[in-house]
């Protein structure tokens, strides 16, 4: 064909080739240097800590860069350091608490900097940063009474939340409000009312969840929507079968995840999509039971006790000894089978979720994802990136590490179980701290915060 008449590749096709080319080169090296496999898969822990600590120092002491994203920078950096099993020194900790306190609005919520309008996204980032710092000074700096008033003010008639006064209503806003209210133990029926209607209306024909009704399903919003539905005890209202179908097909040949259909893979989706898979994995006993119930309702199984399988046999089989844990978490997911299920105790949902049993193993190729993160996203001098050819940044460092941690614990029975060596790609020194998958906070910091806010 005459090249002048052949269609030229689109930018995204060229990008795709570049990524595939670089991934291919990395794999080629990997395959032809088997002796070096462990070395190439080594997490450059010290380099990452140095990269992150330097950034935190450059932000302080007054965090005076001109940026409305400063609470996010705090969260991405502090959470990454915590995932790597490190903590910051007292001076940095005090600077961060003072700075975040100055971002707190007198009427509740946190802005992007001192004196800036409070915003749900920066509120989530500021609160998660303070929980990650974890000291009494840090936790008691959060004004929960004013925060609750701010959340009520952001509540929209649709059931969703606005990101800020007169701002947009979307699934991100629902997640950030509900996640913070849940972890601070201020979640109640007034905040929860109709949130489930709003999130359900954002699940698309593909199975994933969009940012708002009528938009395209996307990994970031899917994590936010699913986590929110779990935290408000309404996950049964989503079509979980099609959600699983959608998310598992988002892992590409490069081994990383893409955020949406026909887009490029990107390291940050290791958490948004990998975290979605982890939540679904923990919900497996409930999903299996629902699957059986639906099959029986369709007439695929007989409920006649003389037949080989009955509803209760199959449900019992699917729950396989975990039913008490499921009952504790998924009150209404059992559609009235649990006594008192109309009295949802929002304060215990996040905590009880950790007891869930992910007996089925990961829903994605966890070893391959770890290889994508370590081989293609890790910058050997410290930090992580979207993909080869891109620059490292704190956002991708945070979400590549969060995704890596999720992979490493993906074979563990529940949050209290130790990690299994065979779940780990690379040497054992790669092991990160586990996270609470609903909030994306390191697990022991979550427990400290949970104790603190259960007392007060
Ligand atoms: C807690 C919180 C605030 C969560 C935010 C969740 C999140 C990451 C949402 C994604 C937003 C979005 C549509 C990105 C698409 O960017 P793109 O078009 O550049 O990327 P793509 O090509 O990969 O889709
Ligand atoms: Zn990204």
TrEMBL record:
| Regions annotated as coiled coil | none
Q: Which residues cross the membrane?
A: none
What does the UniProt keyword field contain? Metal-binding, Prenyltransferase, Repeat, Transferase, Zinc
Query: Which Enzyme Commission numbers does its entry carry?
Result: 2.5.1.58
User: InterPro entries of this UniProt entry?
Assistant: FTB, PGGT1B-like, Prenyltrans, Terpenoid_cyclase/PrenylTrfase
Please name the GO terms of the biological process aspect recorded for this protein, alphabetically: prenylation
Key word Transferase present: yes
Q: Which SUPFAM superfamilies match?
A: Terpenoid cyclases/Protein prenyltransferases (SSF48239)
Indicate the enzyme's highest-level EC class: transferase
Q: Which CDD domains match?
A: FTase
- This protein's source sits in the domain of life called Eukaryota
Q: Which reaction does it catalyse?
A: L-cysteinyl-[protein] + (2E,6E)-farnesyl diphosphate = S-(2E,6E)-farnesyl-L-cysteinyl-[protein] + diphosphate
Q: Name one Pfam family in it.
A: Prenyltrans
Gene Ontology CC terms, in alphabetical order: protein farnesyltransferase complex
Q: Which GO terms describe its molecular function?
A: protein farnesyltransferase activity; zinc ion binding
- Protein family: Belongs to the protein prenyltransferase subunit beta family.
Assembly behavior: Heterodimer of FTA and FTB.
What is the protein name given in its UniProt record?
Protein farnesyltransferase subunit beta
Biological source species: Paeonia suffruticosa
């Amino acid at each position: 064909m005459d090249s002048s008449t052949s269609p030229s590749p689109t930018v995204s096709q060229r990008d795709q080739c570049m990524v595939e080319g670089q991934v291919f080169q990395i794999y080629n090296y990997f395959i032809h240097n088997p002796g070096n496999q462990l070395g190439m898969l080594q997490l450059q822990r010290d380099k990452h800590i140095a990269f992150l600590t330097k950034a935190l120092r450059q932000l302080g002491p007054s965090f005076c860069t001109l940026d409305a994203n400063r609470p996010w920078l705090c969260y991405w950096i502090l959470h990454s350091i915590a995932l790597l099993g490190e903590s910051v020194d007292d001076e940095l900790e005090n600077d961060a608490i003072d700075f975040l306190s100055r971002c707190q609005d007198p009427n509740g919520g946190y802005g992007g900097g001192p004196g800036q309008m409070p915003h749900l996204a920066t509120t989530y980032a500021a609160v998660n940063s303070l929980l990650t710092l974890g000291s009494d000074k840090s936790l008691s700096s959060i004004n929960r009474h004013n925060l609750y008033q701010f959340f009520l003010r952001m509540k929209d008639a649709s059931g969703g939340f606005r990101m800020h006064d007169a701002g947009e209503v979307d699934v991100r806003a629902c997640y950030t409000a509900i996640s913070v209210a849940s972890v601070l133990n201020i979640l109640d029926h007034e905040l929860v009312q109709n949130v489930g209607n709003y999130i359900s209306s954002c699940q698309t024909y593909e199975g994933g969840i969009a940012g708002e009704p009528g938009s395209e399903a996307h990994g970031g919003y899917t994590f936010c929507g699913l986590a929110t539905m779990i935290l408000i005890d309404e996950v049964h209202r989503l079509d979980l079968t099609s959600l699983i179908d959608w998310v598992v097909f988002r892992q590409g040949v490069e081994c990383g995840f893409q955020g949406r259909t026909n887009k490029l893979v990107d390291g940050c989706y290791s958490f948004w999509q990998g975290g979605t898979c982890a939540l679904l994995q923990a919900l497996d006993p409930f999903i299996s039971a629902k699957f059986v119930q639906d099959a029986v309702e369709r007439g695929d199984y007989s409920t006649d006790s003389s037949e080989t399988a009955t509803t209760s046999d199959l449900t019992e089989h699917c729950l396989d000894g975990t039913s008490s844990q499921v009952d504790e978490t998924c009150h209404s997911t059992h559609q009235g089978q649990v006594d008192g299920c109309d009295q949802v105790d929002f304060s215990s949902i996040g905590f009880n979720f950790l007891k869930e049993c992910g007996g089925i193993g990961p829903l994605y190729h966890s070893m391959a994802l770890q290889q994508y993160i370590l081989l293609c996203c890790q910058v050997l001098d410290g930090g992580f990136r979207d993909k080869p050819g891109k620059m490292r940044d704190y956002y991708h460092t945070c979400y590549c590490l969060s995704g890596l941690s999720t992979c490493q614990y993906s074979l563990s029975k529940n949050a209290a179980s130790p990690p299994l060596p065979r779940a780990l790609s690379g040497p054992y020194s790669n092991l990160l701290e586990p996270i609470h998958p609903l909030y994306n906070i390191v697990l022991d910091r979550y427990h400290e915060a949970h104790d603190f806010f259960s007392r007060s």
